């Protein structure tokens, strides 16, 4: 019975009957094929017909077609379906019920005997007289009912014409058992083949589920091999020895991208030291220290204050570092750590697949190593930045080179503004020059540097041209001073403004501001060049390279204890349970196959 408005459903109800003796078989009682129900279930015919077909299409199923004796066998839809799925009638039995309700003129005997043009079944029909609902209520036993059935078929004028093999419940049971035995016997070769195939499949599956490592030596060997593969892959990733399709394994590329990102963050946060705004800020700072120290670019408090404001402004004490350099560097370290964790986790998942607990343990150890090395990087960063904060200083010639280059540009432009006569202009060593319009010995776009001036002649100078050639010019009227050449970070406006200050001979204070701007600008370029190289190299050295060197020993440190390793490499409980069930199945298959092979 179905739920709600549905009277009939395809969901089966299972009833198990156990008795000490008798044949063993499964009886499936299917509702009769119905066309109409009292409550008008519209699809009842499709449901009942489909249910019948779903069972009787199985070639190993014995079909009992139950037809009331009072019905026309020819109109029985169940018989038509049986002939469709069992055309030779090798497994179809006709069961005629309600034999006690026939009329005296009934042709039931002829139909059961299949005489004339009546429906023919290979296994024939068997007539029954079942207990009525009233007899069941009265407590009539099965034995009493079978006795009544026997009297009916022996005494009834029509039914007594049937042979004993054509009526009775005992006859039906014997026939069912015989048909079932014939079906089993016919199916034995197929059963043997099926059992053999299933047994081989089960044994192959059991072999696949067999414990990977059954001894301490086997576990140790297997563990070492898995860690070795992870270690070698990391080495190949960092050295480029092999190409990996998975982009999260491209750690050198990640490192380069993070280094560029680090540089972009620092450059974007670096003040424009040569801007008019910064110049005004320096003027205010210089006024604050007037009378304390000379007004020049070596005025240490102003110089240091400017660097602190740009790069260390969040430092909370003299013993701590903060600011954009430290935060951007830590961000790079953190992102590189995350990228390495993701890449190494992928490798652990690739090579440690059978031991979930070992997989988790190795990932945890790798995480610890990465965190340790990240702290090492940050510690080194703190030391470098503390040193810079404590003593802004450099031996790098790039500082003076940049400073002099900008100064020369300013002074060259300043002297140009003074309108010194072409032949009277006093060229100096280091001046940058270009040929004048009347100089045909060099192209108009040539540039060179004055390397020597003749003390006896203001017009005679030695020039080293940028194309690598040298020339002595005896008439400096053939040369023209360059203004500011292209210097990264130096604008033409700054050169022009600074040149005007020096040309007009303005106050020491104004010139001190210019010197301070140039000094801070040049020093910050040196500082950033060092930092933008040192931080990425430090990340590579202490995070990528050192992790690769120490990975194997660090991970295996806690795996040397056989008991600990055995616990981490213990068989997965789900897998063990599946394997035990499979072993039981294999045993049953073997026993069944042994019995089948014994049957001749």
TrEMBL record:
Keywords: GTP-binding, Nucleotide-binding. PROSITE patterns: G_DYNAMIN_2, GED. One of its GO terms (cellular component) is cytoplasm. It comes from the Eukaryota. One of its GO terms (molecular function) is GTP binding. Residues 513-600 form the GED domain. Residues 1-189 form the Dynamin-type G domain. InterPro entries: Dynamin, Dynamin_GTPase, Dynamin_N, Dynamin_stalk, G_DYNAMIN_dom, GED, GED_dom, P-loop_NTPase. SUPFAM superfamilies: P-loop containing nucleoside triphosphate hydrolases (SSF52540). Gene3D superfamilies: Dynamin, middle domain, P-loop containing nucleotide triphosphate hydrolases. This is Dynamin-like protein.
């Amino acid at each position: 019975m179905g739920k709600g408005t549905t009277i009939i459903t395809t969901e089966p109800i299972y009833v198990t009957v156990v008795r000490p003796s008798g044949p063993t078989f499964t009886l499936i009682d299917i509702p009769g094929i119905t066309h109409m129900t009292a409550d008008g279930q519209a699809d009842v015919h499709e449901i009942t017909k489909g249910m019948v077909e779903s069972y009787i299409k199985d070639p190993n199923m014995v079909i009992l077609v139950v037809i009331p004796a009072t019905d026309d066998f020819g109109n029985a839809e169940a018989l038509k379906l049986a002939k469709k799925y069992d055309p030779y009638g090798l497994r179809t039995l006709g069961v005629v019920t309600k034999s006690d309700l026939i009329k005296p003129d009934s042709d039931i005997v002829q139909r059961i005997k299949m005489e004339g043009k009546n429906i023919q079944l290979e296994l024939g029909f068997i007539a029954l007289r079942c207990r009525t609902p009233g007899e069941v209520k009265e407590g009539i036993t099965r034995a009493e009912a079978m006795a009544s059935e026997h009297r009916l078929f022996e005494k009834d004028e029509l039914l007594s014409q049937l042979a004993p093999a054509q009526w009775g419940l005992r006859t039906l049971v014997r026939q069912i058992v015989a048909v079932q035995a014939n079906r089993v016997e016919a199916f034995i070769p197929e059963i043997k083949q099926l059992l053999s195939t299933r047994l081989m499949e089960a044994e192959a599956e059991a072999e696949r589920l067999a414990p990977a490592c059954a001894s301490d030596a086997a576990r140790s060997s297997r563990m070492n091999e898995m860690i070795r593969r992870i270690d070698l892959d990391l080495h190949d990733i960092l050295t480029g020895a092999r190409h990996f399709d998975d982009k999260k394994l491209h750690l050198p590329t990640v490192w380069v991208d993070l280094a560029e990102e680090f540089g972009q963050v620092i450059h974007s946060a670096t003040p424009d030291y040569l801007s008019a705004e910064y110049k005004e800020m320096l003027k205010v700072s210089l006024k604050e220290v007037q009378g304390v120290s000379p007004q020049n670019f070596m005025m240490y408090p102003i110089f240091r204050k400017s660097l602190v404001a740009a790069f260390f402004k969040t430092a909370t004490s003299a013993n701590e570092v903060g600011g954009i350099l430290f935060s951007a560097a830590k961000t790079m370290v953190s992102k590189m750590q995350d990228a390495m964790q993701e890449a190494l986790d992928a490798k652990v998942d690739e090579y440690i697949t059978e031991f979930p607990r070992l997989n988790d343990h190795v990932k945890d150890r790798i995480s610890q190593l990465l965190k340790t090395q990240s702290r090492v990087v940050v510690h080194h960063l703190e030391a470098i930045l503390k040193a810079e904060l404590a003593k802004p200083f450099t031996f790098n010639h790039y500082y003076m080179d940049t400073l002099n280059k900008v100064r020369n540009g300013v002074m060259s432009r300043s002297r140009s503004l003074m309108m010194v006569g072409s032949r009277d202009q006093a060229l100096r060593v280091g001046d940058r020059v270009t040929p004048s319009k009347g100089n045909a010995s060099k192209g108009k776009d040539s540039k060179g540097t004055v390397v020597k001036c003749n003390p006896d002649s203001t017009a005679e100078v030695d020039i080293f041209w940028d194309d690598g050639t040298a020339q002595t010019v005896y008439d400096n009227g053939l040369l023209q001073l360059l203004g500011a050449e292209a210097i990264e970070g130096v604008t033409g406006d700054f050169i022009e403004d600074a040149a005007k200050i020096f040309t007009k001979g303005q106050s020491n204070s104004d010139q001190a501001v210019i010197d301070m701007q140039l000094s801070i600008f040049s020093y910050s370029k040196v500082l950033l060049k060092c930092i933008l190289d040192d931080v990425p190299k430090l990340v590579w050295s202490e995070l990528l390279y050192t992790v690769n060197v120490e990975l194997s020993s660090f991970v295996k440190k806690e795996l040397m204890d056989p008991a600990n390793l055995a616990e981490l490499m213990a068989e997965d409980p789900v897998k063990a349970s599946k394997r035990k069930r499979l072993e039981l199945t294999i045993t049953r298959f073997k026993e069944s196959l042994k019995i089948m092979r014994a049957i001749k």
